[in-house]
Design goal:
By secondary structure, the chain is an all-alpha fold. The chain has 8 helices and 2 strands, in the order αααβααβααα. InterPro entries: AIF-1_EF_pair, EF-hand-dom_pair, EF_hand_dom, EFHD1/2. It holds the Pfam family AIF-1.
């Protein structure tokens, strides 16, 4: 299972095969690569809501400065500095190593999601760079339980209350306009009646 040397400049490819469940994310590797399994975040990372996955993708794209579908060492360095938890060169390498399944020394979107999966499962050491990344990224992977549901329903109830109050105000305004239009119609009719008595 050796790749042609010219494709990536590497010999045998360690890690998961292209057709395995640990396949590559959309937009990874060389363009037009066929036969590769399309990575579906929602399908593989079912423990996260669609909103959480969108937030993680937005965060990933924000720090993927090269727009190549990977966060490399320098991009990770910048990310950690912006999150307020700068790491040493060795620390950054260890962060990547912990989730780098294909051993290419950079993070694909799938590998990036693994950070949050490990954080949610409590598998990251408190003092690790990945723990700091997950904690500081403002993507809360722990509120999907009761607290998350409670906050969700409270927010939804508040939105419904505000929406119904807004609807009530609109209805009241419409009623008022109808009433005014009706009064105007009656005044015009009364004026015409009065006018017709003068013209006879």
């Amino acid at each position: 299972a050796e790749e042609p040397e010219g494709r990536r400049g590497r010999g045998p490819r360690p890690g998961p095969a292209p057709g395995s469940p640990a396949g590559r994310a959309v937009g990874e590797g060389s363009p037009g690569g066929s036969g590769r399994r399309v990575f579906s975040p929602a399908g593989e990372f079912r423990e996260f809501s669609r909103r959480q996955l969108r937030d993680m993708e937005r965060l990933f794209r924000q720090y993927d400065a090269g727009k190549d579908g990977f966060i490399d060492l320098m991009e990770l360095k910048l990310m950690m500095e912006k999150l307020g938890a700068p790491q040493t060169h060795l620390g950054l390498k260890n962060m990547i190593k912990e989730v780098d399944e294909d051993l290419d020394s950079k993070l694909s979107f799938r590998e990036f999601l693994l950070i949050f999966r490990k954080a949610a499962a409590g598998e990251l050491q408190e003092d690790s760079g990945l723990h700091a990344l997950a904690r500081l990224s403002e993507i809360d992977v722990s509120t999907e339980g009761v607290k998350g549901a409670k906050n969700f329903f409270e927010a939804k109830a508040q939105a419904i209350n505000e929406a119904s109050r807004f609807e009530e105000e609109i209805k009241a305004e419409q009623e008022e306009k109808k009433k005014q239009a009706e009064e105007l119609k009656q005044r015009k009719a009364a004026f015409k009646e009065l006018q017709s008595t003068f013209t006879q």
